[in-house]
Design brief:
Largest sheet: 3 strands, parallel
Structural class: alpha/beta
Strand order of the largest sheet: 2-1-3
Number of strands: 3
Strand content: 5-15%
Distance between the termini: 20 Å
Order of helices and strands: HEHHEE
Helix content: 25-40%
């Protein structure tokens, strides 16, 4: 089956924020979900140190299975750092479907299919 021409482009358009005064979105690629979770814990910790509130951060995933793995990993990581309570981590991570209509300043989209 041939791919539609709009998907065959070798040029990837740059990601841009809706509000041009914000940070530019970044694409971070990892080969394994474990690598993603380690990077995510470190980046999330940096965002919290930069005074982003928990209500302004969302971690979006495709499935509940991935959600459960990320929540478990982040709870362990932040138990040592004492930055976030376990119950708050559960509020940060949600499925893409469950996040419809929500807005946030910092958004992570984790999709292990790619």
């Amino acid at each position: 089956m041939a791919m539609p021409s709009r998907w065959r482009s070798s040029i990837i358009e740059p990601l841009l924020p809706i509000q041009m005064d914000g940070e530019r979105p970044a694409l971070v690629e990892h080969n394994q979900l474990d690598e993603v979770m380690s990077w995510l814990a470190n980046d999330l910790s940096a965002k919290l140190k930069a005074d982003y509130g928990l209500d302004s951060i969302k971690i979006l995933v495709r499935t509940n299975t991935v959600k459960d793995k990320i929540v478990k990993h982040l709870k362990q990581a932040f138990k040592k750092r004492k930055q976030v309570k376990g119950s708050d981590i559960e509020k940060l991570v949600m499925t893409i479907h469950g996040a419809k209509g929500l807005e946030c300043e910092v958004g992570y989209v984790i999709d292990p299919r790619f």
